[in-house]
Specification:
about 45% helix, 8 helices, Rossmann fold, globular, about 230 residues
Length: about 230
């Protein structure tokens, strides 16, 4: 059975992806910071899962994830989904707290790369795939999104370079678009975001990416959903 590691899998997109892969007989290693949320996500899956609680920015936690992957004896997919929005309400760059900005970059840029570095030999052995979850804030100009958006832009470029350096792997930046998640609500405190689609609506595009395995690059869920049967 194929094996996937999904970070930030206790809610939102990560939880939806974990459920979809588990339904398709994937073996999973998942993580999250909240013990209660992680347990609830693991209990909701149809197959056994290795759930490791912790903060992805912590080196010892990443080592525990690597140990869990070693227990599975292979790795076919890393989904670097865990991320942080930063302060809410979103501050403009002119007064963005630098300590918070460092935390955003540590979570959204450094931690995914560090985890990938740790697991790369195992992933290469299976000629697997890396999916770094990005955002349209990485490429669009939105007031207040300078911290989060620039971190995702950095993650996009890390994805781009890693694809060039590891041609035997499929390396993707996956932009799911707007979703009805806790993070999106934090970006718009007090606003009604019920018009945004649920994370589950993005799953078919993600599965299409895995199943068709197009060339490494940046892909939007909306484009994958609208693509013809064969993706070039």
């Amino acid at each position: 059975m194929p094996v996937a590691l999904i970070t930030g899998a206790s809610r939102g997109l990560g939880r939806a992806l974990a459920r979809a892969l588990s339904d398709r007989s994937w073996q999973l290693v998942i993580d999250a910071r909240s013990k209660e949320d992680l347990r609830a996500a693991a209990d909701d899956l149809p197959r056994s899962v290795i759930a490791v609680r912790g903060d992805i920015t912590n080196a010892r936690h990443r080592e525990r994830l690597a140990a869990a992957v070693a227990h599975r004896r292979r790795l076919d997919l890393i989904v670097n989904n865990a991320s942080t929005l930063g302060p809410s309400p979103l501050p403009p760059l002119e007064r963005y707290p630098l300590a918070d900005l460092r935390r955003v970059y540590e979570t959204n840029v450094i931690a995914p790369l560090a985890l990938t570095q740790l697991l790369l030999p195992t992933l290469v052995a299976s000629r697997g795939a890396i999916v770094n979850v990005t955002s349209d804030a990485a490429v669009e100009r939105y007031d207040g999104w300078g911290g989060y958006g620039s971190s995702k832009a950095a993650l996009d470029q890390i994805t781009n370079i890693l694809a060039a350096e590891q041609p035997e792997l499929a390396v993707y930046a996956f932009d799911p678009g707007d979703m009805r998640t806790a993070m999106h609500q934090a970006a718009f405190p007090g606003e009604d975001i019920s018009d945004r689609p649920e994370p589950e609506s993005v799953v078919p595009a993600f599965l299409r990416l895995l199943e068709t395995r197009p060339p490494s690059g940046r892909y939007r869920a909306a484009d994958l959903a609208a693509a013809p049967a064969e993706v070039a």
